[in-house]
Amino acid sequence: MPPRSGSDVPDRASVVLIASSAGGIGALEVLLNGLAPPLPVPVLAAQHLRRSRETDIVAILSRSTRLTVKLAEDGESARPGTVYIAPPDHHLCVEPTGELALSHGGPVNYARPAADPLFESAVRAYGPRVIACVLTGFDGDGAVGVAAVKARGGTVIVQDPESAEFRGMPEAAVDTGLADFVLDLDDIAPTIDRLLRAG
Question: Which of 47, 18, 56 is nearest to 113 (CA)?
Fold first, then answer.
């Protein structure tokens, strides 16, 4: 799906946000593999994770990308070219000053970490300089965040529900009517790359 209009896509972005749930680790592998360094912005990802055990998501994703992948830490500054993953049982948020923050607040859409707190906090910090992506997953997590991103002039990319392993999250994002792009998974990274290098 093309942009709504040229004015809807900022000349440059400062951060890429990714939301995913069921089927999301495989989708993240594909997306991150398509983002070639040097990446000029950080990537912040909220993948629904089981809170009952340690996660090996960093090791899995690191095999698929030349970008640095790590679990986000409370209070750290997000660096370009690094992928920060919300740790199990914590929401990943962005402070107005730009530092990352971990929250043990209540589940959102039955999940912690969840997409909506990440999206909503990131647009408060970055304004329109946000590219937010919603990938495969159950339920409607990310739809409220999508509305927040668009309200501040950011850019929304959604995986085509027809190509998603689980269509609940991308379908809810598409149903907002606010997506700038609805794309097959393989087309998302090239689109992000083009937006980051626009202007």
Answer: 47
Asked if 74 is an active-site residue, the reply is no
Which of 21, 90, 91, 160 is an active site residue? 21
> Can 193 be counted among the known catalytic residues?
no
Provide the pLDDT for residue 50: 72
For tokens 């794309």, name the residue. 183
Q: What is the spatial distance between Cα 181 and Cα 158, in angstroms, rounded to a whole number? A: 6
Residue 117 · residue 95 · CB < 8 Å: no
Do residues 86 and 72 make contact, with C-beta atoms less than 8 angstroms apart? yes
The pTM assigned to this predicted structure is 0.92
104 is catalytic: no
Kindly report the length of the chain: 199
Predicted confidence (pLDDT) per residue in 67-111, tens digit: 999 999 999 999 999 999 999 999 999 999 999 999 988 888 888
